[in-house]
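Hi,

I'm pasting everything inline rather than attaching a file, because the server keeps stripping attachments. The sequence lines come first, and each chain or strand is labelled.
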Amino acid sequence: MKWIEGFGKYFLMLIIIFRAPEKYSIFRKRLFNEIELIGVNSIPIVALMSAFMGGVISLQTASNMSNPLLPTYTVGFITQSSTILEFSPTIISLILAGKVGSNVASEIGTMRVSQQIDALEIMGVNSLNFLVFPKVIAAILFFPILIIFSMGLSLTGGWVALILSNLSSTETYIYGIRYYFEMGNIWYALTKCIVFGFIIITISSYYGYYVKGGSLEVGKASTQAVVSSSVAILIANFLLTQMILLS
Amino acid sequence: MIEVKNVNKSFGGIQILSDVSSTFEKGKVNLIIGQSGQGKTVLAKCIVGLHEIDSGEILFNGSDFCKMNRAQRTLIRQEIGMLFQGSALFDSMTVEENIMFPLSMFQKMTKKEMVNRVNFCLERVNLSGRNNLFPAECSGGMQKRIGIARAIAMNPKYLFCDEPNSGLDPKTAILIDNLIQELTYEYEITTIVITHDLNSVMEIGDSILFIQNGCNWWSGNKNTILTTDNTEVSSFVYASEFMKEIKDSIRVNKRR
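And the predicted assembly:
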């Protein structure tokens, strides 16, 4: 029963969030702040993860290419496919669920327990719209940029790892990346990351906004937000793959 | 004026407020007092709409707040200023931005006009020139005064103060009390103060509502509270040795 109640509360929250902002000039200012907090500040972790994961993917693929019938460009092709289809949109989103999700839940949760949200409501401000809407828009706008950046770095990381290990040449690797490249896969990845961005922000905001108690509960809400967003991302990933790739 | 009529509120089957009725008059400091956990803050939160009541009426100048939609409530809320127990200042904003926030949200003022208003409010609470400090850089007393400055920024008709003296030394507490009283009289505000601080009761209690077990147990003012026969109120007022001595001296004076 609690699950159903939680779902109901979550969807009611979404209705309150998606209303026209009370003042567009303030919304714009908050949107740029959130783009910086959610997006720009995530660049270092995304860069680090992407470069190393790309390197590992290409090295593992190359080390398993013992069959002489497989063309050498397969390493580039597999690195490209796994990066674009799964690693960048899904794994990076799971990492962002940890970084951004816990940040959002603890920020809003702290505002709740220190009565800052009550103060907003007393002033007549739609606190959900004011706090969460700019975060959702920031995530929807900036997550695709982060994911494209991640794709680029991951492929670069793969190339660097192969060259340093002397396992492939630049030409063969680039040929593999370009071989059977489908633009549709990029759109699929971007659609996924927009959905994941929405999921991360709204679920984390839900846990932060409805937290009750003190700082201990804010910590718990933050953990719950990360776990629930991660599970929701995995479910949404499955459903989106079914809908887009297999339809 | 705010009228509360037969308000009931329960949480998870536990009755917190039972049939509470009272009138909070304009231009007066109306206190809601009582021991901890008796429903004072819940009553205040019901009045401002942070909690929905189970039954009853809450009238702001005759208009039933409970029957209003969100847009109508927003208009009333723009006339409300509230000082929270923990001040509830926005951590990420400076003092100036905190006070300017309601103005920038709801007023059509130029930046210069807003800064002038902020400076005026800061002057009223004796914090001129502290515009660029962050809440974390301010003492507890300063945070309360900034909270008051933010609450009066919009020229409110109604001012709510939830335990304005908690965590403050007696001297600063009296300063805050006097500030609340001064603003109430000067701007003819309907002020509701939730407190269990007896200094506040004696200092600013124009009208007092004593809440016990979620019911309005007793009402009076700072003069009548000292001589009431109501056992619960007496035991609340004369709980400390200091107050017991005052009670004895009142009796001695009466006999003379």
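The two ends of chain A are 34 Å apart (CA to CA).

If the labels don't parse on your end, tell me and I'll reformat.
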